[in-house]
Description:
The chain is an alpha/beta fold. Helix content is 34%, strand content 16%. The strands form 2 sheets. A 7-stranded parallel sheet has the order 1-10-9-6-2-3-5. Bound molecules: 2-phosphoglycolic acid.
Amino acid sequence: MQVIIFDDAQQIAESAAEWVAELINKKSNPVLGLATGSTPISLYQELVKKYKAGELSFSNTTSFNLDEYLGINEKNEQSYRHFMNENLFDHVDINKYKTFLPTCNQGENPREQGLDYEDKIAQAGGIDLQILGIGANGHIGFNEPTSSLASRTRIKTLTQQTLDDNSRLFAADEFQPTLAMTMGIATILDARYVLLMATGKNKAKAVKAMVTGPLSAVCPASSLQLHENAIVLLDKEAASELEDQDYYVWADKQNVKINQEFGLYHNY
Length: 268
Ligand code: PGA
């Protein structure tokens, strides 16, 4: 796991945007895994900026989002489809027919929908770069603590902590869904590269559990220890509980030199 510590959230967004731009500019049919939540918003702002500056085009990109509330209409402002339109899709040249979320509409069977989503990802050639946030409870996507490390896209019941953490986004009298469809942990681990962003003190405990373990379903993000190409972008607060911070800073400096000498090797 490559841990990079930044001064602030803006630097994280700029670095993550560089990763996305490199993939999109390098590969003819890039496949992006996307995330919702507060953390990736500044990344999407950077991507829109780059698109408007003519630095990248999403016209050949296919995207798969991590999760979506069960049975929610895409016009509902709480839907993750709405979030993606507002924060990214409406502002760039992506073909919306090639943007997918793990939906399960009224009357559909979540098990069939989960299998169908896995098929779609496989047909697209797999995910090249998966963007991730992390929950204060260590979840990735909506893979809540004790999710199977072998899980695939499926229906999941949200924990009380996740509901509490997300309640800030719902009005007092608004319905807050308690069920969602989410890529599984094994689905996420199949991505060629995984880029996890975390900011703020309230993520510090989960970040520590993710980076220094133990590998456990109690912290789903710790599964990234098994991933060959997991990059973790942190601000100082999110990194604050890591014991070996000096090492990560030192290793990052070495990586810059190694990349200068041997070239950046991203095997997309
Ligand atoms: P946040 O959510 O970016 O809104 O903190 C992250 C997550 O729950 O994965």
